[in-house]
Structures are given as C-alpha cells and as structure tokens.
Design goal:
131 residues; 6 helices; 4 strands
C-alpha cells in the first residue's frame, strides 16, 4: 500500500498527493480545500516514511495553508485540524510546530465534551506524549 500511495497517488505536476483514483481512472486531485485536499496531504506526510519530497510538501502546506492552523481549541473542527497539523509536523520533523500544537491540544477541555470523538482523544494523548 505504501508503494502504491507514493507512486500512484503522487501528482508530480502539482507536487502533492491525489486524494484518490476513481474506478474509471479519474484522479481526485488538487490542493484547495481543507477537506479532503489539505487533510489528505497532511495525513500522507504524517504516516508515510520521512522523505525530502514529503518535507517539501509539508513546507508548502505550511506556507499556503498555515494561516488556517487554529490558534486555540474552540471547537471540534479546531481540534481535528490541530491533530492533523500535529501529526504532519511530527512526520516532517518540525518539532517547533509539534510543540505549539501540543500546547494547544493540552487545552482542549475548552471544547464542549458532548459528542467529542473518542478517536480524537486518542490522537491528543499520543501527540502530547511526543512533546
């Protein structure tokens, strides 16, 4: 699967990962919207082995979309965005951003706990343990 992601989903024209490939061969590509474009590319940087290509992609994502990194955790959306930025920072070796995200994640109690996704709690615990 890792080989398929890095070879079949990499879009060398746009220097980012495609979100998917349709059954008819159509490629879901672009880097405009948080979901699925930016989030999927952050996930690739987070989970694939570190590489110069993924580090360059992470740097590009920070440059183009870093202004959207939440400055506090005021909602479930903020929490989820911070989680994916944190994992990508970890994968790219950006310890400064990872530390900043972890400080914010440690303050997630400000989010209404009702309906809080338990998967997100696991991400928060694992990420904050890394800082």
């Amino acid at each position: 699967m890792q080989t398929a992601i890095t070879s079949m989903l990499w879009n060398s024209t746009n220097s980012c990962y495609c979100v998917g490939i349709q059954i008819d061969g159509g490629r879901m590509e672009g880097l405009k919207l948080w979901y699925p474009d930016v989030m999927a590319n952050l996930m690739a940087v987070a989970w694939l082995p570190a590489s110069p290509r993924n580090r360059a992609l992470f740097d590009r994502l920070r440059k183009e979309f870093g202004h959207d990194i939440p400055k506090s955790v005021g909602s479930q959306v903020d929490l989820e965005r911070l989680i994916w930025w944190g994992w990508a920072a970890n994968g790219a070796g950006d310890r400064t951003l990872l530390a900043r995200v972890c400080v914010l994640l440690s303050q997630f109690e400000t989010v209404n706990a009702q309906g809080l996704d338990c998967g997100n709690l696991g991400h928060v615990a694992r990420l904050t343990a890394r800082s």
